[in-house]
Specification:
Layout lengths: L2 E8 L3 H11 L10 E9 L2 E8 L2 H18 L10 E6 L6
Antiparallel strand pairs: 1-3, 1-4, 2-3
Length: about 100
């Protein structure tokens, strides 16, 4: 079952997003293994990122093996705080 994640970074900016994206995605036009959707943009009070992975396990692998280690190391110019996170079991995903 597909698994969705929404991260809201309070006070986040486009520049911080671009720095973080460059640090955790394999290339500007490629998604990490297991990720099937990615969208991001400004939102009330900050920046929001939405992603859908093939499964919860796929998300957890990306989170534990790539995202969190790089965030703990510190991403120059990246987000300065942890996001507010919402997750969902995706019922329907349209092309």
């Amino acid at each position: 079952m597909a698994y969705g994640i929404v991260h809201h970074f309070r006070g986040g900016t486009r520049e911080q997003y671009e720095a973080a994206l460059a640090a955790v995605h394999p290339a500007p036009d490629r998604l990490p293994d297991g990720q099937i959707f990615h969208a991001a943009g400004p939102s009330a009070g900050g920046w929001t990122i939405m992603a859908v992975h093939e499964s919860q396990e796929s998300w957890e692998r990306f989170r534990d093996d790539i995202l969190m280690p790089r965030m703990r190391e510190g991403i120059e110019g990246g987000f300065e705080s942890e996001p507010q996170e919402t997750t969902i079991d995706v019922y329907k995903l349209l092309p």
